[in-house]
């Protein structure tokens, strides 16, 4: 009985410490103004992104060996950052094109490392669509979604450990309890992931239009990805970017609300500029 009480006491302390650490570590996002539960500094996010950069690139065939095309991707991405509210974030953004010709995907690491695959690039037709991809990924970085996810994972690990300690006398039930707790933690993370996607859509819309791009580009991007999904196997983008069924509708609603008198003529699609830079890849 004493062992059980001692075990439950240790489990309670471990779980309580995890909860206190998570709920009392709050910072305000300088761009979005959102209060966030994050346990990393921006500098730590940058370090994590730089450490993971090589491994992430290697998983998709490494960097695409065309300096001119790499320069074009960087130019578009850096232009979005410099001309938008994203310039107020503390991250040194870098943009990379990966050699993978089959996996349709784009992703961002904490701290500003942003990637898209050659397969994704080949699905696009305008610079505004490219700006939609990059703007969305910039939104993940500025929104600090990776850091939020890591904080939730840390809380989840603390709770899983607490459950394991409390049930440790019966090894089988302890493992089952731990697995159950992990499953709950994953479901919570998935829910927030979907919210992150919608916020990144909104931020991407904001950043790309501030940089002078027609917002139809991000809607067309989602339509392209949906057409791939309906044609057979879903693009990898949807495994890392959950796809709410009303995502396109929400973007169209955002356009209508932002531009009730129509999209301004000075917001560009950049179709010819995009075609010139990708001519060798068609």
Keywords:
single chain; 282 residues; mainly alpha; Zincin-like; 3-stranded mixed beta sheet; two-stranded antiparallel ribbon; 11 helices; 5 strands; 63% helix; globular
Please give a structural write-up.
The protein is 63% helix and 7% strand. Strands 3-5-4 form a 3-stranded mixed sheet. A two-stranded antiparallel ribbon has the order 1-2. The protein has a domain at 40-143 and 189-278: Zincin-like, CATH 3.30.2010. It is mainly α. It has helices at 2-24, 42-58, 67-82, 118-122, 127-142, 145-166, 171-210, 216-230, 237-240, 247-258, 271-278; strands at 26-28, 35-37, 94-98, 106-109, 113-117. The protein is built from 11 helices and 5 strands, in the order H-E-E-H-H-E-E-E-H-H-H-H-H-H-H-H. Strand 4 (106-109) and strand 5 (113-117) form a beta hairpin. Residues 14-23, 162-166, 170-177 and 179-192 have low confidence and may be disordered.
Q: In terms of topology, how is this protein built?
A:
Layout: H1 2-24, E1 26-28, E2 35-37, H2 42-58, H3 67-82, E3 94-98, E4 106-109, E5 113-117, H4 118-122, H5 127-142, H6 145-166, H7 171-210, H8 216-230, H9 237-240, H10 247-258, H11 271-278
Parallel strand pairs: 3-5
Antiparallel strand pairs: 1-2, 4-5
């Amino acid at each position: 009985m004493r062992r059980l009480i001692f075990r439950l006491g240790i489990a309670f302390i471990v779980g309580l410490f995890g909860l206190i650490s998570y709920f009392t570590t709050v910072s305000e996002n300088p761009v979005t103004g959102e209060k966030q539960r994050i346990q990393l500094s921006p500098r730590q996010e940058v370090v994590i992104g730089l450490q993971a950069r090589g491994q992430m690139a290697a998983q998709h065939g490494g960097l695409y060996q065309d300096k001119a095309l790499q320069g074009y991707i960087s130019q578009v991405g850096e232009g979005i950052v410099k001309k938008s509210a994203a310039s107020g974030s503390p991250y040194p953004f870098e943009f990379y094109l990966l050699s993978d010709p089959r996996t349709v995907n784009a992703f961002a690491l904490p701290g500003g490392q942003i990637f898209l695959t050659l397969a994704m690039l080949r699905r696009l037709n305008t610079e505004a669509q490219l700006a939609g991809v990059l703007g969305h990924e910039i939104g993940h970085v500025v929104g600090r979604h990776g850091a939020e996810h890591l904080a939730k994972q840390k809380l989840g690990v603390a709770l899983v450990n607490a459950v394991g300690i409390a049930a440790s006398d019966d090894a089988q039930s302890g493992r089952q309890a731990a697995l159950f707790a992990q499953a709950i933690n994953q479901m919570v993370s998935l829910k927030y992931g979907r919210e992150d996607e919608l916020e990144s859509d909104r931020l991407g819309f904001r950043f790309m239009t501030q940089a002078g791009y027609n917002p139809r580009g991000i809607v067309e991007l989602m339509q392209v990805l949906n057409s791939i999904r309906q044609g057979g196997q879903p693009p990898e983008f949807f495994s890392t970017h959950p796809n709410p069924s009303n995502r396109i509708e929400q973007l169209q609603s955002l356009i209508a609300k932002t531009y009730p008198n129509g999209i301004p003529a000075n917001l560009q699609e950049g179709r010819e500029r995009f075609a010139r830079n990708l001519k060798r890849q068609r």
